[in-house]
Design brief:
Elements (H helix, E strand, L loop, with lengths): L21 H4 L7 E8 L2 H17 L3 E18 L9 E16 L3 H8 L7 E6 L1
Antiparallel strand pairs: 1-3, 1-4, 2-3
Length: about 130
C-alpha cells in the first residue's frame, strides 16, 4: 500500500494596503466659490457673455474654471397645420437652450461688484450663486 505524502503549503502573508497619508486624503480648502450659470437661445451671444465675465475675473486676478458647456436642452413642439380638413398635416418646431457654467474661485468684493454692474445682451439669463 503506497503511502500518501502530505504536502504542506505555506500560507502567503496577508498583504496590507498602503494607507494614504492624512495630507493626501483631505480635499484642498477652498474659500468662497462663485458659480455663474448662463442660459440663452443663441450660442454666439452666450459665448460672448461668458468671455466678458472671464475677462472681468482675470482683470481682478481671480482663478476661473470654465466656461463649461452643459448639454443643450431641446424643446420640441408639434402643431396641427389645419384644425379640421388636413388632420394629419403637422408642423414641428424646436427651441434650443444653450447653457454654460463658470466658476470663480476666491472672488474679491471688487469682482462681485463688477459682475453686478455687468450689462449683458437681452437674450442671456444669468444666475449667480455664492
Amino acid at each position: 500500500m503506497p503511502v500518501a505524502k502530505k504536502t504542506i503549503t505555506a500560507k502567503k502573508p496577508a498583504v496590507k494596503k498602503k494607507s494614504a497619508k492624512p495630507e493626501e486624503t483631505k480635499a484642498p480648502e477652498l474659500g468662497l466659490k462663485l458659480r455663474i450659470k448662463l442660459k440663452a437661445y443663441d450660442h454666439k451671444i452666450i459665448d460672448n457673455s461668458s468671455r466678458q465675465i472671464i475677462d472681468i475675473a482675470n482683470r481682478y486676478g481671480a482663478e476661473v474654471l470654465g466656461p463649461i458647456p452643459l448639454p443643450t436642452e431641446i424643446l420640441k413642439y408639434t402643431v396641427n397645420r389645419s384644425s379640421f380638413v388636413h388632420k394629419n398635416a403637422r408642423e414641428q418646431f424646436e427651441m434650443r437652450v444653450h447653457k454654460r457654467i463658470i466658476d470663480i474661485l476666491n472672488p474679491n468684493a471688487d469682482i462681485i461688484e463688477a459682475l453686478r454692474d455687468l450689462n449683458l445682451p437681452s437674450g442671456v439669463d444669468i444666475t449667480i450663486k455664492i
